[in-house]
Amino acid sequence: MGSSSFCGSTTMKAFLALTFLAALSLVAGANLKHLTPRDIFAPVNPKYTEQEWQEIYAAQKPSPEYYPDFKKGTEPQPEFAGKVHVPLDEAHQRITGGYTASRGQFPWQVAIIVEDTWFCGGSLISSRWVLAAAQCAGRIYQIVLGANRIDGTETGSVIVTSRRSIVHPQYDESTINNDIAVIELPSPVSFTTYIRPVRLRYVAGDAAGARVRVSGWGKTSDSSSSISPTLNYVDLTVITNTACANVYGSIITYTKFCTATTGGKSPCSGDNGGPSVYLESDGTYTQVGIVSFVSVAGCQLGHPAGFTRATSYLSWIESNTGIIIGA
């Protein structure tokens, strides 16, 4: 998507004013049902039937927890700094099978409303750029930063309108390859307690066995009729690409990774484009993935969730945004 210059006509000014007011009404209003989650569903490898896949996953036992885990007290939660996270009961689980995020827990998380119709997630990677999925591309975006709820006004949240994005030129919806894009904000955003970029850098290895944390406003169950008004998150374990290819076949490439969704814990429709992050030993979160696809059968049946491997595209991000990404 290329940049567009705004004309100074009265018609264009009126259009922009109406667009801005529509965006504000979305944030301040309680009705999100007109927004359709922008997502892609991957067909399951026909080697097994749906019933057979459910039996296979039900028989699996959790792997030994030898992988790096999140350190207690290191999550960036300004209002709960130093306190141990206590899991909520099942009645409060979200995303699916996850938990409600606290305000400021994910300061890089953004909501993206595409042409006042589609909804996606994204992540702030600098004062001027948002990282998203290619499937979320459009002509005009309302981007909400610093928010936990998108159905009501929150102090410290910001909404901006953008008309410029860059989609990977080799994006292929049929294979879900190169599902990555960047969106340029109209002016640099100021960093605050609730608005802060996520770190990007190269992370060695295929990440299999590692825990990643996924956040978004996507549906909280397969039966949900709309996106969630509240930001949610879930911790998932990365599986090998070989194991994922046993489910989805040849669409699984080295520029993707998958996570297990045991117990119905999974991203879902509307989480697409959002970040998956990994807590490194220095206590800082690094974005390693972009939510890309789930099984066509649904989010809660135990099929792996698929991500664009962000670390495979660091050079592309650098060359298109001018951001200098450290080692």
TrEMBL record:
Annotated Gene Ontology cellular components are: extracellular region
Q: From which residue to which does the signal peptide run? A: 1-29
User: What superkingdom heads the lineage?
Assistant: Eukaryota
Q: Which UniProt keywords apply?
A: Disulfide bond, Hydrolase, Protease, Secreted, Serine protease, Signal, Zymogen
A biological process (GO) of this protein is: proteolysis
Tell me which Pfam families the record gives.
Trypsin
Recorded GO terms, molecular function?
A: serine-type endopeptidase activity
Identify the residues that the record assigns to the Peptidase S1 domain, covering every copy: 95-322
Please state what the protein is called. Trypsin-like serine protease
Q: PANTHER family per the record?
A: ACROSIN-RELATED, HYALIN
Keyword Iron-sulfur tagged = no
Q: Which CDD domains match?
A: Tryp_SPc (cd00190)
List localization entries. Secreted
